[in-house]
Each structure stands twice: as structure tokens, then as C-alpha cells.
């Protein structure tokens, strides 16, 4: 009997150690940590299918934890304008309302992208003139609808109201990994001029919003970051209203280079633009081990430290904060565990990595 009890105690102790290895220890709220470190926000993507999840929503609504929201899908073209000149803002309005009621910054995502286009755009028979009109109508209508909402007002103790802005992802993923322009309906008809067109139209619709180009795989030394730098330089020469570049940050475990990420962000800020980490996650080959979670913690810390090292990096956004609602398993079969909260909404070691990246305990 004594041996059995000893064995049970050993098993329980090992289980406790396993739980500790998979659980965060930091008690700091991450948006609080980000703002204390001089950043504008720490945020999360979300969308309407997640909002009925009350436990999820309670964490998301805590502005000490998240100070910014990005709609994952509800502001994309197929949701906003599924038929030509027929606009549906229902989903986007729900996310904006959540941001307003919880005092968060709102990032608009996105206006012009090669993916999630309705068939009438993707397969239409366009001339340069007709496609220009379609882009102008879509961008103007959507940005005008949310004018004054893709930012929020903060009343200081002296009752002086100041404006704190977030941004629109105006053009999403225009580049191939080899540095060439992505062939899609917009580029095929208008060449790269569609980018300036979209930026100019968004600026005319809301002169106060910051306007971004957002893309993935900008974090490494590659032809793609070289092409993005060149694209920004060309846009600035053309007088385009471009204010920032979004580094999406969809990483694979153990493949994060903080030095390269910092260098690439500095190449953009040297041109007078700001940058942001806009869609951060770090995916793992399943099943995840304790060693994997330890590495993920280090990877998240490295990304946040890179942002901290660049004054023009304004904030960090997770591409949803929990594995419960992550896009990774459906897109990358056999991979997952990419977020700082697990599917049971418990904080993983990655949470500590983020806190450490912001120099918080």
C-alpha cells in the first residue's frame, strides 16, 4: 500500500510539473505592458463567429489585455460587397462596436486583396477604366462608412481630447516571395498603379486614417523585402499617401530571426513610415512537446523584442489569441498550437515570452 501511495504521489508530481511547463506564470496584462513600454497597443484579431463564445469574449474585451482589434474576415471584399454596389457592413460593424464599447483601437482589414474576392470581381470582364471605377467605389464606400471609427478619442485628465489612430490595411499581400508583383485581377489590368489608386481613394475618404500595405514573409532577408522597400520608395516619389507597412508575422517554430526582423523593419522606418506586427502566430508541428512550447516562448519574445528595438514599430497584433479559434490547423494540416492561449483559454509559456519582450515581469 505504501509503495502504491508513493507511486501515485510521483505520478501526481510529474503531472503537476507537466502542467507548469505548459502554463504561463506572468500576471501582467499584455496591453498594459505594451503601453508601459512605449508602444501604442497590443491587440488581437477576431471576428463575428467567435463572439458568441462568452469565455473567449470576456478575455478579448479586457482592454488591459488587448488594446486593439482587427477583423479577420468581416471587412474583406467578399463580405462587404458580395454583389456589385450591394454593400453589407453587418459583420464589420459588430467588431467596430466591440472596439468602441471596450475602448480599443480599430484596424481596418482589408480593402484590396487578391483573395476572398466575390466572383463578380474575380471573373469580371474589365477594362482599365471600369476596374478603376470598381476599386474607387469599393474603397471609397467602405472607408467612408467607417470614417471616424478606425481610431478612437481619449479624454485626458485635463479634459483635453487627443486623437489616437490605428490604420487601414489598404492593399494586402501585393508581392510574391521572389519580389515580383503578384498576378491577380488588379495587377493584370492596371499593373502596379492599382496600389496608388487604392491609397489615394482611401485617403480621400478618410484623411485622418493611417494607410498601410500589409504582407507576409517580410521578416527575412529575401527579394520580397527588397521589393517592398522599392515599392514604398516608388509610391513616395509618386506622392502616394502611404504611412506604414504591416509585417504579418506568421512564423514557423524556431525560424524567427530577431536581428533580421529588426533590420527589415528599420529599412521601412528609414523611409519615414511606421511598421507594425499585424498577424502574429508561431505554428508548431503536432503534437507539441514541452520543448516546443519553450521554443515558442522564445520565438514570441524575440518578435516583441524586435518591435521594441524599432521606435517606429507601433504595436503587435495576434492573429487571434487562442488556439480555439486559430486558422492554422485548417490551413496547415498537422500543425497548430500557434497562439499564446491554448484551446481551453489557458495562457501558455508564449504569454510569458510576450511579457518578457515588453520588459514586463
Automatic annotation (TrEMBL):
Enzyme class, UniProt record, top EC level: hydrolase
Gene Ontology BP, a term: xylan catabolic process
Sorted UniProt keywords: Carbohydrate metabolism, Glycosidase, Hydrolase, Polysaccharide degradation, Secreted, Signal, Xylan degradation
Keyword Signal belongs to the record: yes
Keyword hit for S-adenosyl-L-methionine: no
SUPFAM superfamilies: (Trans)glycosidases (SSF51445)
Pfam families: Glyco_hydro_10
Cross-referenced InterPro entries: GH (IPR017853), GH10 (IPR044846), GH10_AS (IPR031158), GH10_dom (IPR001000)
Protein name as catalogued: Beta-xylanase
GO molecular function, one term: endo-1,4-beta-xylanase activity
Organism name: Paxillus rubicundulus Ve08.2h10
Catalytic reactions of this protein: Endohydrolysis of (1->4)-beta-D-xylosidic linkages in xylans
Superkingdom of origin: Eukaryota
Family under the similarity heading: Belongs to the glycosyl hydrolase 10 (cellulase F) family.
Main location group: secreted
Signal sequence annotation: 1-29
Subcellular location: Secreted
EC code(s) of this entry: 3.2.1.8
Gene Ontology cellular-component terms listed: extracellular region
GH10 domain sequence ranges: 24-357
Amino acid at each position: 500500500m505504501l509503495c502504491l501511495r508513493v507511486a501515485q504521489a510521483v505520478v501526481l508530481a510529474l503531472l503537476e510539473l507537466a502542467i507548469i511547463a505548459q502554463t504561463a506564470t506572468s500576471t501582467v496584462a499584455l496591453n498594459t505592458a505594451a503601453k508601459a513600454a512605449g508602444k501604442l497597443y497590443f491587440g488581437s484579431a477576431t471576428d463575428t463567429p467567435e463572439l458568441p463564445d462568452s469565455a473567449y469574449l470576456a478575455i478579448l474585451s479586457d482592454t488591459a489585455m488587448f488594446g486593439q482589434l482587427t477583423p479577420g474576415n468581416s471587412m474583406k471584399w467578399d463580405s462587404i460587397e458580395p454583389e456589385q454596389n450591394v454593400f453589407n457592413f453587418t459583420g464589420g460593424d459588430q467588431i467596430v462596436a466591440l472596439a468602441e464599447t471596450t475602448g480599443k483601437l480599430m484596424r481596418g482589414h482589408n480593402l484590396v486583396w487578391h483573395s476572398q474576392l466575390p466572383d463578380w470581381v474575380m471573373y469580371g470582364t474589365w477594362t482599365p477604366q471600369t476596374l478603376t471605377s470598381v476599386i474607387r467605389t469599393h474603397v471609397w464606400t467602405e472607408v467612408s462608412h467607417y470614417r471616424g471609427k478606425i481610431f478612437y478619442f481619449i479624454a485626458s485628465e485635463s479634459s483635453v481630447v487627443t486623437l489616437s489612430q490605428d490604420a487601414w490595411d489598404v492593399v494586402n499581400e501585393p508581392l510574391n516571395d521572389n519580389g515580383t508583383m503578384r498576378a491577380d485581377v488588379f495587377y493584370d489590368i492596371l499593373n502596379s498603379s492599382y496600389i496608388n489608386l487604392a491609397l489615394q481613394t482611401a485617403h480621400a475618404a478618410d484623411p485622418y486614417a493611417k494607410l498601410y500595405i500589409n504582407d507576409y514573409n517580410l521578416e527575412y532577408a529575401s527579394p520580397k523585402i527588397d521589393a517592398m522597400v522599392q515599392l514604398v520608395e516608388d509610391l513616395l516619389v509618386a506622392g502616394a499617401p502611404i504611412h506604414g507597412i504591416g509585417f504579418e508575422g506568421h512564423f514557423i517554430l524556431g525560424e524567427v530571426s530577431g536581428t533580421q526582423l529588426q533590420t527589415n523593419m528599420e529599412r521601412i522606418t528609414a523611409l519615414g513610415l511606421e511598421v507594425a506586427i499585424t498577424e502574429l502566430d508561431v505554428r508548431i508541428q503536432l503534437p507539441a512537446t514541452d520543448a516546443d512550447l519553450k521554443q515558442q516562448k522564445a520565438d514570441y519574445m524575440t518578435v516583441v523584442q524586435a518591435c521594441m528595438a524599432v521606435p517606429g514599430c507601433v504595436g503587435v497584433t495576434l492573429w487571434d489569441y487562442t488556439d480555439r479559434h486559430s486558422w492554422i490547423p485548417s490551413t496547415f494540416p498537422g500543425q497548430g498550437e500557434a497562439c499564446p492561449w491554448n484551446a481551453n483559454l489557458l495562457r501558455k509559456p508564449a504569454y510569458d515570452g510576450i511579457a518578457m519582450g515588453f520588459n514586463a515581469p
